[in-house]
Protein: Cation:proton antiporter
Amino acid sequence: MTLTPEVTAALDTAALILILIGALLCLTAAIGLVRFRDVTARLHAATKPQVLGLLLICVAIALSLRSWPVVAFLLPVVLMQLATAPLSAHMIGRQAYRNGTIDDSSLIVDDLAASKRTPPAAGG
Structure:
């Protein structure tokens, strides 16, 4: 299927805009990691804008190259990012809670308060 020059120009413009927005989101994630003070804010900066930025960049690459093998290559990249970012953020947040580096006064609900009373190796 041959695309008209107008459609090609529109797809290239959309890809350019998506890459710029994705790059700005990744930049804000990096700035947030450096500038935020507490662990929970840094986790938010490390996961949400960075994952969305990568997703937008991958969509832009797929639009720009217009090839099914490229889409087949980018799909596992996006799925792995969507699967691992929340998991790693959860593990880092849980470890920060255990270490006591999260300010307890900033927590609205503390579902892990019982785990502070029992040592991790005690089985409770």
Notes: The two ends are 63 Å apart (CA to CA). The chain has a mean pLDDT of 88. The chain has one domain: 7-100. Residues 7-100 form one domain.
